[in-house]
Amino acid sequence: AQSMRETARAPRVRELMNTKAVSITEDEKIKTAARKLLKGETNHLPVLDRNGMLVGIVTTFDVSKAVVHDGKNNLVRDIMTKNVIKTHPEEPVDIAAQKLERNNISALPVVDKENRVVGILSAIDLGKLFGGRWQR
Amino acid sequence: AQSMRETARAPRVRELMNTKAVSITEDEKIKTAARKLLKGETNHLPVLDRNGMLVGIVTTFDVSKAVVHDGKNNLVRDIMTKNVIKTHPEEPVDIAAQKLERNNISALPVVDKENRVVGILSAIDLGKLFGGRWQR
Ligand SMILES: C[S@@+](CC[C@H](N)C(=O)[O-])C[C@H]1O[C@@H](n2cnc3c(N)ncnc32)[C@H](O)[C@@H]1O
């Protein structure tokens, strides 16, 4: 594991991200989103348009919101967050970590230059940087 | 074996945890849990028994699960996770980070010796450790 106290080059998002991100399209049902979230054991689904471009994100938080306002919304498009905060594979992980913390969110979709999803970086993945770092 | 090497002491959970954790009791409704999750802008609610002891955790993930199996469950007790993975204020943060990562969970209730909740540590909070760590 790399030490965080080295002044060496920061690890990149590419080194920690999960490349098996499950996604959904904006015209699918909320219940389909809930099923995919459970099946993927994840809190976050990037939402794609018909051309495969990232247009939103839907989380278990948004599904819970639909429970509170029940019946009123039906499609992923109605509950997704459209202003997605994202990262790219070459971004240093400390910059990505700041985005998570400042926005109180727990994952960032990782996109390429064409705005296609190539992975997801979750706050949990940051834990990988702590292995054997400090003395006991 | 003990090393003579002088390295810094790991930060403790106390230094990063959020002390304003909202909680819920096990006999409340799932919808009440959903409302509290939204209001607290959080994914995690520690569940307490009538004596204020930690007996479970309920997350937006569990509420989403209730959406998939709709109507069958009604109370927090029916959907909460009973085997709670937790931490305490004096635990080194790297140990807490490992618990998050190995169990693929994004927060840990912080309890005192009487199993009372004194805070919550989320994976997002780990981002606070990355400030200005690497050279640009
Ligand atoms: C403000 S957070 C609060 C919950 C919690 N802090 C968490 O772990 O995500 C929940 C909201 O953030 C949104 N969200 C999550 N990840 C996002 C991202 N990368 N960009 C924009 N919004 C995001 C979700 O759609 C949801 O409406």
Please characterize this protein's 3D structure.
- The structure is a homodimer.
- The first copy, chain A, has helices at about 15, 30-40, 60-70, 75-80, 95-105, and strands at about 25, 45-50, 55-60, 105-110, 115-120.
- The first copy, chain A, has about 140 residues and is of the alpha+beta class.
- Chain A has one domain (about 15-130): CBS-domain.
- The first copy, chain A, has a 3-stranded mixed beta sheet with strand order 1-2-3. Chain A has a two-stranded antiparallel sheet with strand order 4-5.
- The interface between A and B is large, with 48 and 46 residues.
- S-adenosylmethionine sits at the interface of chains A and B.
- Chains A, B: Keywords: Amino-acid biosynthesis, CBS domain, Methionine biosynthesis.
- Chains A, B: This is CBS domain-containing protein.
- Chains A, B: It comes from Methanoculleus frigidifontis.
